[in-house]
């Protein structure tokens, strides 16, 4: 009888020991899995189809009226919808999308109660909404303007309590460098009036009061040689090609100070000011129409076509292209005595 009890007791002890070992192994395996998971970056946005993004809306949670709305047009150029559809700086938009398309980082918290500690409450953070062609929201990211370092950011998704520390300076991509900074459309605006290769311009026309001042045409002499001449040709004059190159460089580097509402009618276009039209080798015409002068700002109202957009342009930029016929002539060499 005692032997049977001893055998049963040994069996029970053995079973308990075996169960303890199994539990210990399971616990160790679970701890290892948790350590591996903790060591791996948490993906906030994974495989985000950046190529399908057609609209980006950006705003501060406490200032929803002051938004930046970027739209991709039919030519795949980004424009600022709520800034008179002015063209956006391609590199600024693409750099932002590159950082947002695959956001990974260290999981720092998983509780709504600590959003305020990270400056990630809805009213505190910077909202970035990415949409596809059909207005489908691909991601709604909230970024903290309170950066932990110059090259990192705290972020979360709108409907998630997970907060990550990502090795990306997202606020910097928005020109936000402190908690109080405001969003500014101008940071994304491309204020370069005309984008063209000066070597591909084949015709220059200027006019005032609707009357042609002069026309210069590039004429091909051989496969590698071109000459400029007035149209109609002017006898006994020589064109200085270097001055034409300088003129076209100036025209290709005109930057506005701001974009304006094109629907207003008090800009002075079509009066007695200066017009410039450039024709490319693909027969595309780029044109500038100069309007009224603003004495206080030392600037002109300028309209570009075919976009029909209006800008405020510094006086000096216009003076650099407001040239008469004589400017393009070679200087005569004084006769030797």
Q: Quick summary of this structure?
A:
The protein is an alpha+beta fold and 337 residues long. The chain is 21% helix and 33% strand. The termini are far apart.
Number of helices: 5
Number of strands: 18
Averaging pLDDT over every residue, what do you get?
88
**Alpha-beta classification:** alpha+beta
> Cα distance, first to last residue?
145 Å
Spell out the helices and strands N to C. Answer: HEEEEEHEEEEEHEEEHEEEEEH
How many whole angstroms does the radius of gyration measure? Answer: 33 Å
Order of strands in the sheet with most strands: 1-6-10-9-8-7-2-3-4-5
- What fraction strand? 25-35%
List keywords for this structure.
alpha+beta, 5 helices, single chain
What does this structure look like?
Helices cover 21% and strands 33% of the residues. It has 337 residues and is of the alpha+beta class. Strands 1-6-10-9-8-7-2-3-4-5 form a ten-stranded antiparallel beta sheet, with no helix packed on it. Strands 13-12-11-15-16-17-18-14 form an eight-stranded antiparallel beta sheet. A hairpin with a 5-residue loop joins strand 4 (78-80) and strand 5. Residues 28-39 have low confidence and may be disordered.
């Amino acid at each position: 009888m005692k032997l049977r009890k001893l055998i049963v007791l040994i069996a029970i002890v053995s079973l308990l020991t075996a169960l303890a070992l199994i539990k210990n192994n399971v616990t160790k395996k679970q701890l290892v899995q948790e350590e591996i998971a903790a060591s791996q970056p948490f993906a906030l946005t994974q495989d985000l189809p950046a190529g399908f993004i057609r609209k980006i809306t950006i705003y501060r949670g406490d200032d929803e009226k002051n938004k930046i709305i970027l739209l991709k047009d039919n030519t795949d150029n980004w424009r600022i919808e709520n800034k008179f559809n002015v063209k956006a700086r391609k590199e600024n938009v693409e750099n932002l999308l590159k950082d947002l398309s695959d956001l990974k980082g260290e999981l720092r918290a998983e509780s709504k109660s600590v959003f305020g500690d990270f400056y990630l409450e809805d009213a505190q953070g910077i909202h970035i909404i990415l949409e596809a062609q059909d207005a489908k929201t691909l991601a709604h990211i909230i970024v903290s303007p309170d950066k932990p370092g110059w090259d990192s950011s705290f972020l979360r998704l709108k409907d998630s309590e997970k907060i990550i520390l990502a090795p990306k300076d997202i606020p910097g991509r928005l020109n936000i460098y402190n908690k109080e900074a405001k969003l500014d459309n101008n940071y994304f605006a491309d204020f370069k009036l005309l984008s063209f290769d000066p070597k591909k311009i084949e015709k220059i026309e200027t006019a005032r009061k609707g009357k042609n001042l002069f026309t210069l045409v590039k004429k091909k002499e051989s496969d590698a040689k071109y000459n400029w001449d007035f149209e109609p040709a002017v006898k006994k004059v020589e064109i200085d090609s270097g001055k034409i190159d300088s003129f076209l460089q100036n025209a290709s580097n005109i930057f506005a100070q701001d974009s304006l509402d094109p629907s207003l009618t008090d800009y002075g276009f079509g009066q007695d000011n200066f017009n410039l039209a450039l024709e490319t080798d693909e027969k595309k015409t780029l044109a500038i129409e100069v309007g009224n002068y603003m004495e206080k700002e030392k600037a002109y109202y300028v309209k570009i076509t075919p976009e029909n957009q209006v800008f405020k342009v510094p006086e000096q930029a216009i003076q650099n292209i407001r040239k008469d016929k004589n400017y393009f002539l070679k200087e005569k060499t004084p006769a030797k005595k």
